[in-house]
Amino acid sequence: MSDQTNNLALPYILPSQAQKHVPHNEALRRLDTVVQLAILGERQSPPETAPGTPAEGDRYLVGADPQGEWLGRQGLVSVWQDGAWAYQSPNPGWRAFFLDTRQLRAFDGTNWNAISLDADGSLPMIGVNAAADAVNRLAVASEASLFSHEGQGHQLKINKADSSQTGTLLFQTGWSGRAEMGLAGSDAFSIKVSGNGDDWSTALIVSPDGLVRTPSRPIVRASPAAGTSSPPSAGRTGFTDIHVEQGGFELGAAVPSGTGARLIVPADGLYLLSLSSSTLTSAGHGVAIEVNGTTVVANAGGPASASPARQTATTIVSLNRGDWLALLHSGAAQYEFGAAKTELCAVML
């Protein structure tokens, strides 16, 4: 039988051994060196010399060109024991934690290499101050995340399997979605928002050929019911037909002192309003866009005429959600109502 163990070369206590404490203590010293191996650092900067005031148990990896007390000890693990340097030769497969770089490495017989869990150097999941899982394989909990360049630019790449899948950035409040941007179910870039995480509105869509749409932007084209009418001066005309609509415009209650319904504004903002008025005859008239039955914001009118005529008025005005629009008349005229006749268009800017 050998006098020492195979892997760590620990001396056996033999039956005929005198001073049995000697090999026993030697074995303990070696175990204390290599078990839970934590290396303070690798001495690589010339001159590669031992530190001047080591503490008991300090362990270092001797570099390739040692000098002084470490001369000829390159590649060995050096430990300060009992006021002197002792040395241990590492075997392939040994692992050590390098305290100066906070890195776990393994010895391959020549070099100490950083440990990766897979042969290709990848990790199945990483949690940085957070718990990763099978879906969120990278989880980070911090005040900020930094992705910087290495000499030139930097790209953050989000790849999906096919066009029908999703590749987006999702912004949350309390783990409930509030905004999402990216390729959601198609190859068109979109921005969506939600107030509760369940009901979503698409604010912007950019098609693969570069066309931009805003499907939630308030837009309307509305008119009174098709036909002819001669409203009285100071009377109002509301709306009956909506020919184009998106973003929440709708008809409300009947207008006061007139016919038709109020056109309800869906959101606060600046609006471009365009009024088109078509008359068959006129004794001198005016038709205005009125807000909330109190404020005239644009006016179209014409002189007395026995012939058909057309007048338009355009303005930009600030409107609030819940405001309502109607037409206010002055003078006397016979109007043509309906699409492409007397109608109102509104677009939120």
Automatic annotation (TrEMBL):
Origin superkingdom: Bacteria
Listed InterPro entries: DUF2793 (IPR021251)
UniProt protein name: DUF2793 domain-containing protein
Species this chain originates from: Rhizobium metallidurans
